[in-house]
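USER: Study each token:
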Amino acid sequence: MIDTHAHLYDEHFTQQWDVQYNEMKMAGIEEVWLPNCDQDSWSALWSLYQANTSFCKPMIGLHPTYVKEDYVQQLAFFEQELQSKKVLAIGEIGLDYYWDVSFKSQQIAAFEMQCHWALEHHLWIDVHCRKAYADLLAILKKKEFKELTGIIHCFSGDAREANTLVDLGYTLGIGGVLTYKNANLHHDIQDVPLTQLVLETDAPYLSPVPHRGKPNSPAYLGLIAQKLADYREMPLAEVIQITTQNAQALKAYSNI
């Protein structure tokens, strides 16, 4: 299995890396893809990748909730890094209006700039979107971005938004929320073909049941796969095979 989105550079993992790594491998995890947050997280992410090049794959980008007064300087730093670093994707980038909209226009500007980087470097994008799907869709529908593709990480929109994103060529990242009793995610993605879904944990966040409320791990990815198999009334092995193939197809876009 491939965990397409987990923050393994978080201290929760790095303080006990050997133990955590063994648990992931025992759970059948072949690769974990690392989304970046900001300039401060980049060093830890890149160091972890260099120490585990076959298991960890790096993304680079400025997370929308880290878009603040210094976002232009942060983007300049990442743009320079892109000149010398090989990465899997541009991410985690996007829009987040859940906590604060005071930097809304800056989030949009940062997102569009990083989308252009993906086009320039022939990469896909890993997209964070929370309470901002109208603006996200308006941007992704622009003619200048029609060649973009990528993953909508931790998809949280409705059925119409899910189908629109799939029609635009995007894959939906499905994580622990799928296992939550009161979540509508299953209904919102029920018309999305399995060929347009990938699995993720967002570890150490959004732990699946029965680990909800505790730190998440890629070792729990099988719980998400099993829930998806149950909802789709498909064999678990088939769900794992198809979602892994979907991830591998996106990996083929990268230069790493």
Remarks:
- The domain at 2-251 is CATH 3.20.20.140 (TIM Barrel).
- The two ends are 19 Å apart (CA to CA).
- The longest helix spans residues 104-121.
